[in-house]
Amino acid sequence: MRQLASIIASYILGMALISFGVVMIIRADVGAAPWDALNVGLQQQIGLTIGSWVFIVGFILILIAAAVKRTYPQLLNFIPVVLVGSLIDFFNGYVLTALNPVQLFTKYGAFLGGLLVLAMGIAVYLNTKVPIRTPHDDLTLALSKKLNWSVGAAKTLTEILGLVLALLAKGPISFGTLISVALLGPLINMFIYLLFNRTRNSGDAS
Fold this sequence. Notes:
Elements: H1 2-28, H2 34-45, H3 50-69, H4 78-95, H5 104-127, H6 135-147, H7 151-168, H8 175-205
């Protein structure tokens, strides 16, 4: 029971860090990751909150993934959508309201800080091994199996889809978008090693 509580707490912590990092990146205003940029673009063009669009887009992706797999929608995958969407609105509306960098170096400082927090959150979330995927991950794995592609190739396809939709929604696509696409994966691997693998290796050595 204690182990289960620890896993749930780590899962929620991972989602909180992901949400905090996303808001930092958005408020840095130098470009967001494709799917985050889509949510911001929809919020600016249509209304509602960014978190509301996380709910809506996430639910649509769950339905698309189900159609690709020809199965019923995995509604449990809506849990991270609710967590992240709610936390994004909380952090954006109440915690990080003073984060409005003006100078370019402060913008990129906030952006890089957000990218580090985001990568750490994803590493914590992945380490829990909880089999409840985000809609983006679910769609990636569904496309990988359907098209007989590698997971990496399918992930690239879903990111391109998000980028095209973000451009259509006039979301914040800029140089920061390219940085996030290039650095997020390596940063996630770095945090997995620093936070978990190195600790396990040290424990084995002792």
